Amino acid sequence: MVLIGKLTTELGIKSPADKFYNLFASQLHHVQNLCERIHGTKIHEGEEWHDTETIKHWTYVIDGKVHTCLETIEEVDDVNKKIIYKLFGTDDIDNHYKQFKLILEVVDKGAHAAVKWTIEFEKVNEDVDPPNGWMDYLSKSTRDIDGHLIKGEKVAL
C-alpha cells in the first residue's frame, strides 16, 4: 500500500534556460497566454504574483477535462533555477491527494537546456491513481512555452 509517490520527466528545450526560468520566476501570469491547456489563472488571495503568501486560482485541461486548483509558491531558488509549487484547495486535488507539489527545475547544460518537472504527491488512499495525466500536461505545456520563447514572440499583457 504505497500512498506517497514521485513522478519526474526531463525535457530538452531550445530556448535559453534563463529565459524559460524567468517566465516562471517573474512573469507567471503570462503562462496562461502561451499554453492551450491553461484556460486561465488569477490571483485568488494576495497582491503579488510571485509572493509566497499569494494564492493563485488555475483553470486547466488534463485528459480532456477542465480542472481547477489553488496554488502557492512554496520555495524559490534562483541560483539553481528551481521553484516548488503547492497545489490544493479544490475537489480535483483535495479529494485525491493529501499533498501535491510541482517542482520546476531548469537546467543549463551548456549548448542546450532542459526542463525537469517533478510531481511529489501523497494519495488519500490506495484507490487513487498516480497523477500520470499531469506529466502529459506538463510536457505539452513545456513544448508550447518553449515554442513561443524560441520564436521570440512577445507575451501579451
Give the helices and strands, then pairings.
Blueprint: E1 4-13, H1 17-26, H2 31-34, E2 38-45, E3 55-62, E4 65-77, E5 82-88, H3 91-94, E6 97-108, E7 113-123, H4 132-151
Antiparallel strand pairs: 1-7, 2-3, 3-4, 4-5, 5-6, 6-7
GO biological process, one term: defense response
Domain Bet v I/Major latex protein: 2-152
Protein name: MLP-like protein
What does this structure look like?
This protein has one domain (4-151): Alpha-D-Glucose-1,6-Bisphosphate, Chain A, domain 4. 24% of the residues lie in helices and 44% in strands. The protein contains four helices and seven strands, in the order E-H-H-E-E-E-E-H-E-E-H. The protein has helices spanning 17-26, 31-34, 91-94, 132-151, and strands at 4-13, 38-45, 55-62, 65-77, 82-88, 97-108, 113-123. Strands 1-7-6-5-4-3-2 form a seven-stranded antiparallel sheet. The N and C termini lie far apart (47 Å). InterPro entries: Bet_v_I/MLP, MLP-like, START-like_dom_sf.
The string of secondary-structure elements, in order, is: EHHEEEEHEEH
Shape: globular
How helical, in percent, are the residues? 10-25%
Number of strands: 7
- The total number of structural domains is 1
CATH topology tier name: Alpha-D-Glucose-1,6-Bisphosphate, Chain A, domain 4
Biggest sheet, open or closed, and with what strands and sense? Answer: 7 strands, antiparallel
Q: From the structure provided, what is the oligomeric state, counting identical versus distinct chains?
A: single chain
Average the pLDDT over all residues and give the rounded result.
Answer: 92
Low-confidence stretches: 153-157
Named CATH architecture: 2-Layer Sandwich
Structural class: alpha+beta
End-to-end CA span = 47 Å
Strand order of the largest sheet: 1-7-6-5-4-3-2
Give the helix tally. 4
Strand content: 35-45%
